[in-house]
Specification:
Elements lengths: L4 H13 L2 H7 L4 H15 L4 E2 L5 E2 L1 H23 L9 E7 L1 H11 L6 E7 L2 H10 L4 E5 L7 E15 L1 H7 L6 H4 L4 E3 L6 H10 L7 E3 L3 H9 L5 E4 H9 L4 E2 L6 E10 L7 H14 L4
Parallel strand pairs: 3-4, 3-5, 7-8
Antiparallel strand pairs: 1-2, 5-11, 6-9, 6-10, 6-11
Length: about 290
């Protein structure tokens, strides 16, 4: 048994663009011709490969074939480059896992000036990024700590510093008499989600009491800064967000102690690290410039 590469290409285009119509336009096919290729591939494999929704998404079997299609494209690009042949106008699609704070503060700067790639950014916590690397769903990730996924190379980048901040008015209302257990138990905090424990840690270590402060949940890293500036609560923000706002007087620093540092690591699959060298170089240089170095 073998797979028809044109049918595999059709499936990959549907999953990359999110719809049969966009995929057909991308491949210069009619919608019916493209749909037939995907249907024939499903018949060949004996399984449904794509959930026809908005956007289209792969089934478990479809994801494996999509990964195969991406691997073929990478190997072809690597071969042509090694033979000094023209690789044409096609850009390589690179799936990368990043945390919300990384995405919101410095990572987009690293992606500037890389016109030969199309990026698929999976934004989730660092643990999920490691899982996506291990499963092959992404080729690279920015993760926390120094534990490296098997089959990947890990490059230390530096650290994000998390600083406790709030608006001047919020500080005057709640913290004029200090950072006490009583105030922490009543003053609203801001968190990304229920797994975001930075505020709990700061309140506990600063007050000397076990505190779980009341919290607004704002599942957007930049919106957390906006909510703090609007006076909804206090929050631990990464330094790249917090420092400009503190310098402008829009936020105030609540304490000079109990700041926390998250060490970041760039992990890249060894199978494609050669082709990803320009991306890796850009990420390393940006991290060295913007993150805190030991």
């Amino acid at each position: 048994m073998h797979l028809d590469l044109k049918q595999v290409e059709a499936l990959a285009a549907v999953l990359r663009t999110g719809s049969f119509e966009a995929a057909a336009q991308h491949l210069n096919l009619t919608a019916s011709a493209l749909s037939q290729r995907v249907r024939l591939l499903e018949e060949r494999v004996g399984a449904v490969l794509v959930v026809r929704a908005a956007p289209c998404r792969p089934t478990r079997q479809g994801r494996r074939i999509w990964q195969y299609a991406q691997d073929v494209a990478w190997r072809e690009h690597d071969l042509l480059t090694g033979l000094a042949l023209d690789v044409g106008p096609n850009r390589l699609t690179v799936a990368i896992a990043v945390s919300p704070d990384t995405m919101a503060t410095w990572f987009m700067e690293a992606l500037r000036g890389l016109p030969n790639y199309l990026f698929v950014l999976e934004v989730d916590n660092a643990e999920q990024g490691s899982r996506l690397l291990a499963s092959g769903d992404v080729l690279a990730a920015v993760t926390w700590g120094q534990k490296v996924v098997q089959g990947c190379d890990g490059i230390p980048l530096g650290a994000l510093q998390y600083m406790p901040v709030c608006s001047p008015a919020f500080h005057a209302e709640w913290f004029s008499d200090g950072l006490t257990p009583e105030v922490f138990s009543r003053a609203p905090s801001l968190a990304y989600n229920l797994h975001d424990r930075l505020q709990v840690r700061f309140a506990t270590e600063t007050s000397g009491s076990d505190i779980i402060p009341p919290s607004h949940l704002v599942a957007d890293a930049r919106a957390l800064a906006d909510a703090a500036e609007a006076g909804l609560g206090w929050v631990m923000l990464p330094h790249l967000m917090a420092r400009p706002l503190v310098d402008d007087g829009r936020l105030v620093l609540m304490s000079e102690i109990n700041h926390y540092y998250s060490d970041l690591t760039w992990q890249v699959s060894r199978a494609t690290k050669g082709i990803l060298q320009p991306l890796t170089r850009a990420v390393r240089e940006t991290g060295a410039r913007l993150l805190i170095q030991a």
